[in-house]
């Protein structure tokens, strides 16, 4: 029963003998109409508040939101403030890094070993083991991502530490897969005189197209 | 004959020499040009090599996907460059800048990134740098909804024939951006989008957005068609293409090409999530469009395809129910609401309960309407209680740390979605993102402060060790030894410089002992001659005198060389003394000097101050953001509470009315 249907009938239209019954009926109709209105209003309120897509009294077309595939980046004072903070943090980290190096690895005892490699056609690097004067300094296992970064011209600081001044020997063992997918292990050794300047050593893995083999070298800069 | 043979040999030799000369002149390869002599000093060459290593470290960090490390390495490179006075060549400098710009963009430092890109575009003539800089600038502008930059980038690349300088992934992304912008402006975008590969996810996004535009223009047939096309296309797109991060290794500059050809586990998860979310959006859009077309059966199929975990599913089902109700298709509408009420615990279940009550009432089933209203009332009570207790959680400072995955009550999940997506008044999603970044900065700063504390401890220990060593090192003995040595040197110098220096003083040990023996011999001869009546033969005395004469002659002969030797040794002694004195002075200075640790300590002090200031500033920012977010959420919760209370009142009134209706005599 709807409000419109109920409003069609009036009290005057009804015969007097049935007036009492009619009054009861009208009352029922009015109660039901009120209930329906109440439910509709409640539902409308409710759905509006709950952000429903559509409510029963509104047949307006819902507006669909754009299908995004990019996070929005707001350009505001807040963004500028964040950017300043981030830049300050980069500078702070840089200064801390330099100071920490100065404190922990003074140039008189510092030795730093770097690793670089070229295309890697004849050698796929898995690990490098580094020994200084026969003692293990580091053993580094590489992920594919790190190896790819090396292929693209990256240089890894493999080791930084302290050694005494004088004659020293550094040995690097390269472990990986060589030509024809065979397990491959090669080593290079470098003897050098550590003085009061920081020692920088570069380990290089280079493909030799003439030999069809990888070549390994250690150079004191 | 011999002469003839000699002439022949000579002629032959001349001919061979001439021919060799000519042949050498004709066929020998020209000597390569001598490389220009390296005029740099050894120090400069070493500095340059170290710079190259530093450049390589930036590249290594960049390709490992460590943007913060890349920025740090880049900053170190600049410091080294200034210190060593060895600037990079323009190409390497531009590449460094391009990497810095790209990682700055990734870290949300948009202004810095765009500053770098604009400078590169103005300064660099390298086609590679030009093309890639245009790409990054367009990407940044597109993300910030600044229209037109992508189009400019595209035109610049096309006009200068730079397409090959971009990786395939970057090229497709640029084409997508330009197509998207053209679509929003109502221009022809399909022609350009045709350049995208058929299995590119960008195709799906473009068509999906086209469908949304058509739907909002109320062209439901076109929207319908576009949604279906997008779904079919998405189905045909490989999962690994569902995220826009580059995953091949074709480009030197590609962002994520270190992943090789496959995806990592987390990327794969994200790819699936992205794909599913897009499917949900498409199904929702299609369902709503079909409802508009009054194709209820197909609308229901589309809406039911939306994942259960998606908020779109519940929203869509509710919409479906109301749409059917408007058409007086009560059984279907009631079934949708029933399903929603039984399967959902959120706000949409409450709405479904109301829908059910309304439906029952409309169909004259007052008893069922009464039950539905009672259910609804009970649920409203529970939800209001839960909202109250949730309000207390929201007040806690750490609440927003876990807002994305924390313990959010399921019945208020739509509030979570509202917070994560924002509304027209406040971009809470952006604020949440910034707050998250600021919290990360705080964590980093806490690490930095701990690092600084460690440095202080290290310096303290070093100072203590230094003091102990200084105390253990007595320099008093050394001072006495040096003083004594100084006296000796002066004495030697006086002697050597004296005019009356005796030859004996410079004699060897043997010569000295021989002289002593001769002196004794003389004494003995004298004593014997004195003590005895008969003197010794004069020959003895004469022999001693002769020997002494010989010895004196030898000494005088050796005197210049011996004196020179002594002078030389004295000079050496003086040098050694000077060295020892210098060392002693240095040691003395070191013992009294703590300036090196003082200098380091002052550097640490500066950094501690800087870190503390940054920390305070970041903390203030986090607090401010937390306050704004709390206010936003609290305001929405208050609205929700008010709506729930109103709803509860309306529901209870409706219950009373129904009771009146069931007992008609009671009200009379």
Task: Report on the architecture of this protein.
The complex is a heterodimer of chains A (221) and B (668). In chain A, the strands form 2 sheets. Chain A has a 4-stranded mixed sheet with strand order 4-1-7-8. A 4-stranded antiparallel sheet of chain A has the order 3-2-5-6, with no helix packed on it. Chain A has 2 domains: 9-49; 103-220, Sandwich (Immunoglobulin-like), CATH 2.60.40. Chain A is of the alpha+beta class and 221 residues long. Mean pLDDT of chain A is 75; it is low at 1-26 and 44-63. In chain A, a hairpin with a 2-residue loop joins strand 2 and strand 3. Chain A has helices at 3-8, 19-49, 77-104, 144-151, and strands at residues 110-117, 124-132, 135-141, 155-162, 166-177, 183-194, 199-208, 213-220. Chain A is built from 4 helices and 8 strands; from the N terminus they run αααβββαβββββ. Chain B is built from 23 helices and no strands. Chain B is an all-alpha fold and 668 residues long. Chains A and B meet through helix 2, helix 3, helix 4 and strand 4 of A and helix 2, helix 3, helix 5, helix 6 and helix 10 of B.
